[in-house]
Design goal:
single chain; 263 residues; alpha/beta; Aminopeptidase; five-stranded mixed β-sheet; 46% helix
């Protein structure tokens, strides 16, 4: 039985080997034909040139990524600030015995305030008491700079005062502006806040009614032109720094820390 089986299988094995060799030969021949065809078609007139293919291969090997132009980020412009030099262009204000006028002191301080704010990159309008620009004036903040009487009153007549525009539609902003002015000015000059001498003229200051009601505004009397005369006339830089610090505190939304009870 086994001998008969062996005899019948031998021819089948030979046929399988012959078939495999034939199949391999046909595959090689087909591949060669395909390569020859591709080489024949590979001409500059075809869709892709040899040079383009080479550049693509080199780029892929280097893992190059096409550069994408990103938009350039630009800083937002800083807000406008208005500074009024009290009595400038209108009247001298308080006049001292030695000829010093409140208007001159106000203008010198206001000019320095504007310079300090501009040095910080803020656009500033320096305006007169009745400046035409004040009509419906719009800005991030407006501060009018004044000073108190040259006359001796008593030993308590020293220090500064600040009042906000009560007619503004943003009362909380006006309140914060005055708080910043009080805190920073007191810290810079060492003068005390003289709240009990704030007058109705300060609270009803005419400029408050002229500007846009959305503009936070305040008036500051930086000192008394009697007991505070030396500071106001010989060190206007310190005074101006105090006012500028207060304005920057407001527009930059800086925190306020009171070393003494808040007014």
């Amino acid at each position: 039985m086994s001998e008969h089986s062996t005899r019948t299988k031998l021819p089948t094995t030979r046929r399988s080997k012959s078939f495999s060799l034939l199949t391999a030969f046909q595959t090689i021949a087909s591949a060669g034909f395909l390569v020859a065809t591709l080489l024949t078609l590979w001409t500059p007139s075809n869709l892709f040139s040899n040079r383009l293919i080479s550049e693509m291969l080199v780029s892929m090997q280097r893992n190059e990524v096409p550069e994408v132009a990103l938009p350039t980020m630009t800083a937002a412009p800083k807000p406008l600030i208005g500074i009024v030099a009290g009595h400038w262009g209108n009247d001298p204000g308080a006049v001292c015995e030695n000829g010093t006028t409140e208007m001159d002191v106000n203008l010198r301080i206001a000019t320095l305030v504007a310079q300090y704010l501009k040095a910080e990159g803020y656009p500033v309008d320096l305006m007169q008491e009745y400046d035409p620009k004040l009509r419906i004036y719009q800005a991030a903040a407006l501060v009018s700079i004044h000073n108190d009487s040259c006359q001796y009153v008593n030993e308590e007549a020293t220090g500064f005062k600040v009042a906000a525009a009560v007619g503004t539609v943003h009362q909380e902003k006006a309140s914060r502006l005055t708080s910043c002015l009080i805190n920073r000015y007191q810290s810079r000059t060492g003068l005390k806040y003289h709240e009990n001498t704030i007058t109705p003229d300060m609270q009803e200051y005419h400029t408050f009614d002229e500007i846009n009601s959305a503009t936070p505004a305040a008036i500051i009397e930086t000192g008394f032109l009697n007991l505070d005369y030396t500071l106001l006339t010989e060190h206007p830089d310190i005074v101006a720094r105090g006012v500028a610090d207060g304005i920057l505190c407001y527009v930059r939304n800086e925190p306020i820390e009171w070393s003494t009870p808040a007014p």
